[in-house]
Amino acid sequence: MTAPPSTGPRRATGTPATTVLGAVALLALTGTVALGLALPLTREQRVYSRLIAIHPPVAWTAYLAVAVTAIASALYLWPRTRDRRWDRVAAASAEVGVVFIALMLATGSIWGRPTWGVWWTWDARLTASALMLVLYLGYLAVRRVPADIEVRARRSAVTALLAIVVVPINHMAVEWWRTLHQGRSLAELDPGSNLDGAFIAAMLLGFLAMTLVYAWLVVHRYRVEALEERLAERGLDAAIAERRAEAVMVDQ
Amino acid sequence: MWRDAVLIAGRDLRIEARSRVVVNQVAPFAVLVLVLFAFALDPDRGVLERAAAGLFWVAVLFSALLAVQRSFSLESADGTRDALRLSGLDPAGIFLGKALAVAAQLAALQVLLGAGIVVLYGTDLGRPALLVATAALATAGLAAAGTVYGILAAGLRVRETLLPLLLLPVVAPVLLAATRAWEAGLASVASEGWPWLRVLGVFAVVYTAVGIAAFGSLLEDA
Fold first, then answer.
1. SS3 of A79, please?
2. Which residue of B has its CA nearest to A144?
3. Which of A249, B125, B134, B154 is the most exposed place for a label (fewest CB within 10 A)?
4. DSSP secondary structure letters along B121-180
5. How far is residue B98's CA from residue B105's CA, in Å, rounded to a whole number?
6. Measured distance CA(A112)–CA(A116) in Å, rounded
7. Phi/psi of residue A46, each to 5°?
8. pLDDT-derived band of residue B148, with 50, 70 and 90 as boundaries?
9. Domain map of chain A by residue range?
10. pLDDT, tens digit, for every residue of B172-215?
């Protein structure tokens, strides 16, 4: 018979530590919303300038997630640091990252509509972000292909490293494409040049809140991944035990 | 490495010469794409002529997808991939060989498509030198990136649907740069076109280097 796993059965992905992390993240998020909604209206953008508490922090978190995925993948591929845990970190971070990239595009689009008059414009950063979203959807697709866990981990790690090579090339190409033809950049349109203190405070709290939310989500996703792996291994053990039992019956 | 590359490229091209899959299937498909663009965009108002460069490169991109799929479906039959792994050939050489074979096929397709836009869209080939230089660098980049992602997807059951999702966002800079360069070349304002070759050059070098470095481990897992 198969021996029960040495670690006790854990059905949930939460621990006291993650509960605290989640509570702090929620608090920071509430604070960001409160500060953001209290921001004064600006002359040019009226109420929409308040998005500064949300959009830049979301974008930062998206890039953070992509960077974490790349680093974890590299650590997995490096023989001395090879550990299945890095693969789980990469997986969790990429999945949360895709959500943040999508949020970045969505909040940017909501901001762009009143400021630029259009939902979407072929600005360099927008185009590069859209390509990044597709790139990491591809990474998640590679992860979903059924395979042995080790094989999948290696293949995913290589895919993540290839993806991180593409991000700067795409940025370079579209940046050039859009600056060669029209000299418009986000910097000019951004109210960032003359921000006052309240805006900076809301944005900084936003950075903290989004990073905490990201960390909380990644920890939970990581544990779900670990549970899935354990389930897969157990399923295999159970199947082997069943076949053995059949063989015994045939012998008798 | 180079000897192995020539060996593999020769093998792939010999298979193509005998099976004629690219000639009989991919080439007609490429021309068909050009015809479909004419149906989609009103052909009589000069839209096609203005968009010729972009349409040409989109057609090249789609054909490149098929060429890469074909290049790696050769390896899936009769356990060829295992044979390749056991052959003792340098993985970097295998990568270069397969990329060279894909590049040769893409170059032939581009000649066909180039004739296609001249005949069907009434385009003038304003500055042939720029056009050819662009095509050469873009082809190198497409073949290298295609081969890297081709082997990545090769062993998977979902490769037909996965490869476009992985490859197209990656080769977006090639489409962008090659189209701008060709627009300049077709309109005979070469000075605007040459700077784009730098993007294509960087892309080709990066993906060739990535392929040489990573192909061995990708082949092991495929």
1. helix
2. B158
3. A249
4. H------HHHHHHHHHHHHHHHHHHHHHHHHHHHT-TTHHHHHHHHHHHHSHHHHHHHHH
5. 11
6. 5
7. 50, -125
8. very high
9. 18-184+198-236
10. 989 989 999 998 888 877 777 788 898 899 999 999 999 998 88
Report the alpha-carbon distance of residue A7 to residue A236 in Å, rounded: 18
Q: Does A122 touch chain B (CB under 8 A)?
A: no
Q: Which residue has the higher pLDDT, A70 or A232?
A: A70
Interface predicted TM-score of the whole assembly (ipTM), two decimals: 0.84
Give burial (CB, 10 Å; 0-12/13-18/19+) of B93. buried
Distance of CA A77 to the CA centre of its chain: 20
Which pLDDT belongs to residue A251? 64
User: Three-class SS string for A87-103?
Assistant: HHHHHHHHHHHHHHHHH
- Chain centroid to CA B145: 9
- How far, in Å, are B53, B55, B119, B129, B199 from residue B188 at the CA level? 13, 18, 19, 11, 20
Rounded CA separation B159/B177 (Å):
27
Facing residue for B206 by CB, picked from A158, A165, A174: A165
Q: Tell me the torsion sign for CA atoms B192, B193, B199, B202.
A: negative
For chain A, what is the radius of gyration of the CA atoms? Answer: 23
CA–CA gap between residue A220 and residue A174 (Å, rounded): 35
pTM, entire model: 0.84
The two tokens of residue B141 are: 């980049």
User: Is there a contact between A158 and B218 if contact means CB atoms under 8 Å apart?
Assistant: yes
Closest-CA distance, B173 to chain A, in angstroms, reads 6
pLDDT of residue B134: 92
DSSP state of A51: G
Kindly give the residue spans of alpha helices, DSSP state H, lying in chain A. Answer: 16-38, 55-77, 84-116, 124-144, 149-181, 186-189, 197-251
Give one DSSP letter per residue of B13-47, joined into a string. HHHHHHH-HIIIIIHHHHHHHHHHHHHHS-GGGTH
Rounded CA separation B167/B177 (Å): 16
